[in-house]
Amino acid sequence: MDFFSQQGREETLSGGNHAGNADMPFKPGVLVISHGSPDPEWVGLVDEAVAAAAADLPDTLPVEASFLEIVEGRLIQDGIDRLEAQGVSDLIVIPLFVSSGSTHIDEIAYALGVKNTPEKETDMKRLRISARVFFGDPVDDDPVIAEMVWDKVKALSSKPEREILLLVGHGSIHEGFLQRWERGISSLAARTGKLSGLAGADFALLNPDSLRRKVSYWSEERGYDVIVAPLFLSAGYFTKTAIPSRLTGLIFRYSGDALLPHPFLARWMYGQILNIMKSLSL
Question: Which of 51, 129, 188, 224 has its CA 20 to 30 A from that of 24?
Fold first, then answer.
């Protein structure tokens, strides 16, 4: 069944994780939401990835990239308003975050009306929205992202049988959110390690901090060469300063490359959009 057809919408009105008015004339749209940054280059990389994903979608499907904060005129409400001005009735939301352990996922879902109450207190208010909302998943342990992580760091590998991949993420101090971070990044590290052919793979978080301990363990206690791979959307303070500064004096390999730019992120977004369409057509 075609998600873009009127019949497809009528047959799926009772399914999906949604909010909004089911009586509107059917027109789907996509809203990609990421954190935002004062760095125009950061915003540009997100825009390029979203545009690349949109290029493989039907021309009739409007796509907006929006940001949680900072980017004036491009906030979530701005994106919703632009899509609804085009008559969008069913909104596919792609949260462009690396972990479901991010508190931002929780507050965005609440603000969009996908959940009645946030798990953690938030300053975000309910957004103005008439469209039905179908909320996607963040990166977590997606196999496409595993390929992407390895592609970013494989040039650092020379003797795979003596090397360990250490995937590094932001993490969280909040109960429940930390466990989601750990589940997602540990599974992603295992996926990446398996396809890499390295001796093994592990993960570390910056919050609570386990990075130096993990690098020290694998390099000094176990005798492996450690390849450190940052799990961050774009380069910035965490990839350029936080990670290297915490490893002063240790031996490790590190390029500092974040996930963007890379064509696989557009491929991941495209897959997320299609997955939601397929789930609605069941």
Answer: 51
The two beta strands, 253-254 and 225-230, are: parallel
95: which strand partners?
Answer: 33
Residue with tokens 């994106």: 79
Of 61, 91, 97, residue with least CA distance to 77: 91
239: exposed, middle or buried (C-beta count within 10 Å: 0-12, 13-18, 19+)? buried
Conformation bin of residue 28: beta by default, left when phi > 0, alpha when psi is -120 to 50: beta
CATH node for 6-140+263-280: 3.40.50.1400
Q: What share of the chain is helix, strand, coil (3-state, %, to 5)?
A: 40, 15, 40
Give the span between the Cα atoms of 227 and 255, in whole angstroms.
9
Question: The tokens of 104 are what?
Answer: 């931002």
Q: Where are the domains of the chain?
A: 6-140+263-280, 143-254
Q: Token digits for 45?
A: 């990389």
Rounded CA gap, 2 and 231, in Å?
Answer: 35
pLDDT digits (tens, 9 = 90+) for 103-142: 999 999 999 999 999 999 999 999 999 999 999 999 999 9
- Residue 238 predicted with pLDDT over 80: yes
For residues 39 and 238, is the Cβ–Cβ distance under 8 A? no
Fold of 143-254: Rossmann fold (3.40.50)
Cβ burial of 237 (10 Å; 0-12, 13-18, 19+) is exposed
Copy the structure tokens of residue 105: 């996922």
- pLDDT-derived band at 27 (thresholds 50, 70, 90) equals confident
